[in-house]
Amino acid sequence: MLNLDPPLSEKAAFKEAVKTSAPTMPGIFAWGMVTAMAMVKSGLTAGQALGMTLVVFAGSAQLASLPLIAANASVWVVFATAMVVNLRFVIFAAAIGPHLSHLPWYKRLWYGYLNADLTMALFSMRFPPHTLYQPTGKAGYVAGIDYMNWAFWQAGSIVGIFLASQIPQSWGIEFAGTLALLAVMIPLIANSAALTGVLVASAVAILTAHLPYRLGLLVAVIFGMASAMAVDTLIDHQKKTRGDA
User: How many domains does the chain have?
Assistant: First the structure.
């Protein structure tokens, strides 16, 4: 008889991920609510906004698409813009994907849909590169993060859609999402390589803020990761040199 229950190790990892990600959920909820409010106030009906948040599930892409939709741009222009804005998820998937290579393709495709900035941050902290060939607990952990993030984002979006006219923008609740990501990012700065990556990415993001379609974010991610890897390689080389001496 086929056993469809996940192993105990995956269940434990799922619970761990839920507990770890829980403190960031108020910010995710607020971020989803603000994005939904922007959709409704840009002219989308409640049904259209609900469909977008459930199918697209990507705040940056949704916000970038709204001016184009309002201007009656071609569907292909809207689609291409959303794809460009979300190019950073290609990098995230390339980093997390090898850890989940033991899963069937349809599960990896599902986790690809659920992939988010929070997934990259928390998963990378729990499973650093040297754990690549240790699959235990990874599916449960990524599922715990993804399901929490999806549920709170959608809950916030639904509230924002139906209460868009009742919540004033002067409340500034969009800043809660930024605070949530900062709370995740700061503990990740555990060494000089990570600090270098953060500083370089921050500087590049500021310098490229003028680029269209938020391409500056993608450029910042690439430069940040490259600089962190370079510093990490340099540190390893120095350690080996001192060991040989």
Answer: 2
